[in-house]
Amino acid sequence: MRESHQIEAAVSRAEEARPLPDPVDPRQFRDALGRFATGVTVITTCEADGAAPVGITANSFASVSLDPALVLWSAARSSMRHRHFSVAQAFAVHVLGFGQQSLAQRFTGKGEGFSGLDHRQNAEGVPVFDDVLARFECRTEATHEGGDHTIIIGRVIRFALCREGEPLVFAGGRYGRFEPS
Q1: Residue 126 covered by a domain
Q2: 81-87: long-range contacts (C-beta < 8 A, 24 or more apart)?
Q3: CATH code, domain with 49
Q4: I need a labelling partner for 90 at 20 to 30 A (CA). Which of 12, 62, 75, 116 fits?
Q5: pLDDT for 25-43, tens place per residue?
Q6: Would you say residue 164 lies in a domain?
């Protein structure tokens, strides 16, 4: 047997002997998902009773369809804000740019939220920000149960390319930037 064949055989045996990660181990699963870089968004709506603005940072945003224009994102059921978004008739998705980590942090766990933050309301009464890379203003099209999340599909009724810039990226539990090759 030639040396290269011996090396390939040894590698194959080592790979077969390596235990596979437990598919139900939440920490390992989260670590594996963290290898996929995503953009960072802030989703906004009004509280369920319509009184106050509410927002949440999410990296689960994705395009669903161009015709009709549909997008989706997933709201964690464990979030205190989940109940507002799961019944919202309308919401806005704000795509954040590099350097807007502080805005993302405002809408996580114990962040400051809208306190002292400039925003305006759109025609549907949803709070919106203008100083972001892009904004998608949506009417809720459908919601679907998805494990420990609710998948929210929105029909885009307006969108705006607000400014140029690099996107804020999230991977491996950290914020960063995209560097073109």
Answers
A1: yes
A2: 81/54, 81/55, 81/56, 82/150, 83/48, 84/45, 84/46, 84/47, 84/48, 84/54, 85/43, 85/45, 85/54, 85/56, 85/150, 85/152, 86/143, 86/150, 86/152, 87/48
A3: 2.30.110.10
A4: 116
A5: 888 888 888 889 999 999 9
A6: yes
